[in-house]
Amino acid sequence: MILIKKGTVVDPADNVEQLADVLVGDGKILRIAQEIAEADLQAFCGGGAHCEVIDAAGCIVAPGLVDVHVHFRDPGFTHKEDIETGAKAALRGGFTSVVLMANTKPAVDSIDTLAYVMDKGKQTDAKIYTCATVTKGMAGKELTDMDALVSGGAVGFTDDGIPIMDAGLLERAMTKAASLNVPVSLHEEDPALITDNGINRGKASEHYGIGGSPREAEISMIRRDLEIALRTGAVLNIQHISTREGVELVRQAKRKAAAQGTGGIHAEATPHHFSLTQDAVIRHGALAKMNPPLREESDRQAIIEGLRDGTIDIIATDHAPHSKEEKERPITKAPSGIIGLETALALGITNLVGERQLSMAQLIAAMAANPAKMYGLPAGTLAEGAAADIVIFDPDASQTVRDFASKSSNTPFAGQTLRGVVKYTIVDGRIAYRHESC
Question: Which residues are tagged catalytic?
Answer without folding.
Answer: 318
